[in-house]
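I trust your eye. Have a critical look at both lines of this record:
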Amino acid sequence: MDVASGELNAWRNTFRVVQSEEAWAAQGEWIKATQPKLGPGVKERFAAAAVLDPAEIAAARAMRKVIVERVLSLLAPDTVMLLPTAPGIAPLRNTPDATLDVFRARAIELLCVSGHAGTPQVSMPVAKFDDCPIGLSIMGARDCDEDILQLAVELAK
């Protein structure tokens, strides 16, 4: 099943905009007042969040409503969704920034589904590739956190 109807890139961008707007709303005044030394990537993301276009934020919030409706329609009570946790094995520490950005974008496409919908998700290491763990996520309907944790415990036996 294609959960995002081929729109994972749009879902990721929606997540990025909403997350950026929320992060700036929570931390922007502090950042402007103290000008902390932020790490690479974080600094750039906060700088972009500071100048988000209100129209882009409004469009992202509208799109998020559509996404939430779609995900919740797929997660009826007593239903779980299984999906990969990441697009591949974790990148190495010395991976070039451009490669990390591609990996991060692909990972967010998988991870933003639960974040958009406000649903619980747990990741389990289920296999190995090149001696590195590969994760499988279990996502459930809202308010079934304990149920998916119990399922993860049962599957781990």
About this structure: Helices lie at 8-34, 42-50, 54-74, 97-117, 145-156. The mean pLDDT is 92. The longest helix spans residues 8-34.
